[in-house]
Amino acid sequence: MNTVPVEYGLVLAGILFTLGLVSVLTRRNIIFMLISVEIMLNASGLAFIVAGARWMQPDGQVMFIFILTMAAAEVSVGLALILQIYHQLKTLDSDAANKMKG
Amino acid sequence: MITTFYIASVIAIISTIMVITRYNMIHALLYLVVSFLSLSVVFFILGAPFAAVLEVIVYAGAIVVLIIFVIMMLNIREESVEEEKRWLPPRAWIGPSVLSLILLAELVYVLTFVDAAPSGVKVVNARAVGLSLYGPYIIGVELSGLLLMAGIVGAYHLGRQKKKVVHRFLEKAEE
Amino acid sequence: MLWLIPALPFAGAFILVVGGSRLPKGMIPLVGVSSVALSAVLTLALAFDFVGSGATSYDQRLWDWLDVAGLSAAFSLHLDALTLVFLFVITFVGSLIHIYSAEFMSDDDGYARFFAYLNLFVSAMLILVLADNLVLLYLGWEGVGLCSYLLIGFWYKEEKNGYASRKAFITTRVGDTAMAIGLFLLFQELNTLKIHEVAAIAPSAWTTGSPVVTLIALLLLGGAVGKSAQLPLQTWLPDAMAGPSPVSALIHAATMVTAGVYLIARMYMLFELAPLAQLAVGVVGAVTLLMAGCSALTQYDLKRVLAYSTISQIGYMFLALGIGAWSASIFHFMIHAFFKALLFLAAGAVIMALHHEHDMFRMGGLRKKLPAVYWTFLTGAGSLAALPLITSGFYSKDQILWIAWAGEKGNTWFFLAALMGAFITAIYTARMIFLTFWGEEKTHVSHAPGVQMVLPLVALAILSTIGGFVELPHTMGHLTAFSDFLGPVLPGVTLRPGAEESEWILQSIAAIVALSGVGLGYYFYVAKPVMADSLKRQAGFIHQFWFSGWAMDKLYDLLFVRPFVFLSNINKQDIIDKLYAGIVSVSETMHRMFSFTQSGMLRWYLAGIVIGAIAVITIGLVS
Known about the structure:
heterotrimer; C: 623 residues; two-stranded antiparallel ribbon
């Protein structure tokens, strides 16, 4: 069986990352921004797996596990923050949190 | 094998596009789950079963569920869909798309110059990952533990909603 | 030992500048007074030594200062009779004034600063009179100008004091520049600036009346006129009364304003060679004394009367220099220093006792309340008015009058001007006394001055009375101790032949003039005060004119200040300003631009990160 060329895997990771980036830049809703960040993290994890498969070593998966862990922690804290923001500003608009303006 | 890869990747890309263009959060999250599942298939193809399983369990199963919980807690109503429609006219996509496409182009450009020879397939199973994880990468494991602990404590503390105690003189000002 | 005399006050000033705020309050006047008092004691010792040894001069070279392009000015001191007279006056009157200030300024925050400036002034003035060459003299000249500025504007928190001190500094600066040009010319002609060498070479370098020496002498006169507040640079002295009274006494009565007199007397050989310049000196003196006397008649501020009186009396000294009465001029300087310092200190005591009331018309009745001040003031005023026989002012002023009438270079016009001036002096002096001390009390006495202030007054009163007896005229004993003392330094006076007999007539005329002036003052201000008011109303225009110092301030404002302000307003928009304004506007624009990027919106910042990432990767790819 022929393997998947490394470039294809990395290009896939790149495309997914770019899609996440577009979404995070465009969306105003905070939760959607969080989701987009998850997409980007996932894409970068894919890149690690591809690299690990190319060298046939478990290091890629180990990195992926770390990324996963970090994403989990980040989402939980981020959601807690989102709760606080919603409680203060009564909206999920990220533009409403602009007290640092100027 | 490679056709499976192509199919899985196409599904991943399409479902991701659907995620980012939905107005309803729950719809977007469901598409996200689909995207994660297809990526899990890709991991299987690449010979990383452990990572594939973890992807499903943790990402699709825990993180997305967590987000759904929070959405439910926030009591998002129908207006949010309208809001999203208002906030996302088509012209809003232009700028970020341009920037991201430039980035993608550069990435692809770099990748075409790398000619790495594809080597054979070897499935790196959970045992190998475990040995590697608790061998050379033990520090990373400990630090991840710390990180998760910090995450727990932080999330608990930040998510707490204390009843605001206002001095009675200020209460009247608040009204 | 000669160098200690200016060095001690300088050391006192240095100590007070460096550690004044750390010294306990009682130490400050101790340092300040003792430095000058020690100088006075040293002067006395040196005087005994000098007179006893019979030498005519004494030099002490301290160190080499300048030696460039043919000009070698060393820091060397020269002592002779003229210098000794000045040293005596500066240190003795100076110490008395320092003792007075110890009490006068004791409540002030800038106590140490005051004594530091005062000591610095005394040391600069001492260097001026001890200087061997004209460059060192110029150093002292500038030093006293600086200290005058610092002390007039001593209470700098009030804006008008700063204005007065700036006015003084700038006006004297004009004179200083003229003097500097004169020094340049002198050096160019004679290639030396040592005073003795100039004295030796000058008669052979120029013929009498040569235009170069006349020009140099006129330029030196310009410098003297600035420092001594004579026409046309006299406008600063009345405003300089904004400073504390000890400052007015020391600087603007006894010492700094006489620096001009010193300069002309020192360079007498140049003036002998330039009769036109000497005539100019006399004319300046005569006109100034009349103008200032008229102005003094109309003032209501006690210190301003004394300021105009100072201008007038220095006019007498210039008049004397102009007619060749060199030692008479110095004699009048010495006596004037005594009684004018006394008058200023007493005026300061009166003003302090009445809680800073300066207006004479609101004083009165102090004869009974402040007896010590009254009697000392009376003594000083008597000398000023030149009351016959008992006051020293009579002897010095009478000598000038006599030489104006009878001297070879004397002139009827000068004599008449001096006589008229004496009359006016007597009137305004009497006016001052009667308004301030007689009559009913209009402002109550807050507190009487203490012994530290009264003692110098008494000492100066004694000196004012007996100081004149060192030089008695022919008709009264013919004692010429003073002019003999100055004989080796300054040339004597030659009288017109046949004029000696009329000396006693002149003395009687002078006496009658003085007494009638006092009597007129009594009539107008004690006997029938309403006459004074009606006279003032009738001659309203003249009164206003004389009150404003013959409108010279307005004249200068029109001639110099307005065009300058006009030109500098035009210059304000010039190109160099635009450069700096451009820098300002560029930075403001950049601020506006960059603060735009801090919009507080999360998506902006994310876009910024992405753009940065693109930029970095592009650079990495391209290079």
